[in-house]
Every structure is written in structure tokens, then in C-alpha cells.
Design brief:
This protein is mainly alpha-helical. It has helices at residues 5-27, 29-32, 37-48, 66-77, 80-83, 98-111, 115-131, 143-161, 174-177, 183-200, 203-218, 227-271; strands spanning 87-89, 171-173.
Length: 274
């Protein structure tokens, strides 16, 4: 597993931009309720375009590198009691072991596989606004679904946040990352599993769906939408953008874990180099 550090920095910047753009979108939601459809469309398009698959680095789920094979040979020969006190680069504030962190990230990553369906449903709603005049008065939207989506998302962030309540040092001893040498195999396998799940999500298709959404919103600029319809449209856009933000955030989290595993491999193999 090899990670592109420059790409990771760019992804971090992209994550912050998405977050800022969504915050700006949400803070201006009252403006949409004044009846300015053109303003609403402009902001909807801007927040959707905040996400781009080009910001997500390629995922490497290749076989073990020579250095990683050497690492596993070392930990099969050197007792955990000796390795556990070695300091290695780690994630700031991490207060759990790597297996716990990866298990916590795994479930919400599965949720991200529904992103394409969510985008398709969103585009269907936009299409209905264009083709059905009645829908412009009362948009056919399951608001309970979005309430649940938001609550579930808040719970995900809360769970992940509990993983990061430790000190701000970017160093941890091996004993804080794994409970025994044998755990490294599970760490590698679990990392590969979550990376495969991320890779199974068609990033380019998400981009295409966002392009479709942008084109559809172009067509509603001159429509006479009710205040209620505009409120629902702004809310569904906000929820969708927050799901894209979560996807990007989880992508960054997993690749960060992957990078720190690499750091541990480098440190241990350097120390026990023959």
C-alpha cells in the first residue's frame, strides 16, 4: 500500500473547501425563501460543484510491497514486548488502536455506496419540477428521510470524534496502535477491505450525476416555484451536499490511516534493517 502525500494534502484542502461552501449555502438559506429562484439555482449549482472526484487520490490496494513483507518477517521474529515501546508517526489525538478506528470507519463507508442512488433520486425530483407544474407548488419530497439521514450522519461524526480525544502529538508507541504483533495482519486486511469499498464507488459516475443536476437546475431558473417548494429544494440540496462531504471526509480518514501504517512499516524496517 503506497500513498501519494501531495494528493492527500490536496484532498484535505478540498475537504475544507466543501465544508466552507456548504456552510455558506446553509447560512444563506433564508435568501431563497424570498422567492428569488435565480439566486437559489446559483447557490445550488455552486455547492454541488464543490465536490469533484478529481480531488480524490487513486486508491492503491496492491499486494504487499517488499518493505511490507520485510516488516511482517520482522514482527514474526521480534517479540511484541520489545516492539510495543517504539514510537512511530501516528494520527494526532488518536486514542484507540487501529483496528477499532478501522471498524468505526467501515460502516459509514458502506453508507457511501448509496450516493449514486441519492443523486439519481435528486435529479428525478429536479426533472419533476421541470415537467410537472403541480410539483412546483408542493414538491414531492420525503422529508422524514432527510431528517433520518441527518441524524444518522451526526451519529457517525460523533462516533468518529470519540476516536480522537487523545493528546495532540503525532507520535504513538506501537503498543497504542496494536495489542499484539498478530494484529498487524488484521490491520492490513481491514484497511484493504475499506479501500476496496471506497474503490467500488464510481467517482466518475457521481461527477456525471452532479453535471446532470447542474444542467437540470439551469432549466428551473425561470420557473415559478412556491416558497414551500424552494425550501424543500434547498433542504434536499443541503442534505445531498452533506453526504458528499461525508464521503470525501471518510476517504481522507482512510487514506490517512493507510499513510500512518506506511510510516510504521518504514520506522520498524529502518530500525531492524540487516
Amino acid at each position: 500500500m503506497v500513498i501519494n502525500k501531495i494528493a492527500m494534502e490536496e484532498l484535505h484542502i478540498a475537504n475544507e473547501n466543501i465544508k466552507d461552501n456548504i456552510k455558506n449555502f446553509y447560512s444563506n438559506v433564508t435568501e431563497f425563501l424570498g422567492g428569488n429562484v435565480r439566486s437559489l439555482v446559483s447557490k445550488v449549482q455552486y455547492v454541488l460543484k464543490s465536490f469533484s472526484s478529481d480531488d480524490l487520490p487513486n486508491i492503491d490496494i496492491s499486494s504487499l510491497t517488499d518493505k511490507e513483507k520485510e516488516f511482517f518477517k520482522i514482527i514474526s521474529e521480534i517479540p511484541y514486548s520489545e516492539l510495543m515501546y517504539i514510537k512511530v508517526p501516528s494520527i494526532e489525538k488518536l486514542n484507540v488502536n487501529l483496528i477499532t478506528l478501522l471498524n468505526t470507519l467501515s460502516d459509514p463507508i458502506d453508507r457511501c455506496k448509496k450516493l449514486e442512488d441519492e443523486l439519481n433520486e435528486y435529479n428525478k425530483l429536479l426533472g419533476e419540477l421541470i415537467s410537472n407544474e403541480n410539483s412546483r407548488k408542493s414538491m414531492n419530497l420525503n422529508e422524514n428521510k432527510y431528517i433520518k439521514m441527518e441524524n444518522d450522519r451526526d451519529e457517525i461524526y460523533s462516533k468518529i470524534k470519540t476516536m480522537y480525544t487523545g493528546n495532540e502529538s503525532d507520535q504513538r508507541v506501537i503498543g497504542q496502535l496494536v495489542d499484539r504483533n498478530a494484529d498487524w495482519k488484521e490491520v492490513f486486511n481491514k484497511t484493504k477491505d475499506v479501500l476496496k469499498t471506497l474503490e467500488s464507488i464510481d467517482k466518475k459516475q457521481i461527477d456525471k450525476s452532479i453535471i446532470v443536476a447542474t444542467k437540470l437546475t439551469d432549466e428551473i431558473i425561470n420557473l415559478n416555484l412556491s416558497i414551500e417548494c424552494m425550501r424543500k429544494l434547498s433542504n434536499s440540496t443541503y442534505q445531498l451536499a452533506k453526504e458528499l462531504e461525508l464521503y470525501s471526509y471518510l476517504y481522507y480518514q482512510v487514506l490517512t490511516v493507510q499513510g500512518k501504517i506506511e510510516n510504521s512499516v518504514d520506522k520498524i524496517t529502518d530500525i531492524y534493517k540487516k
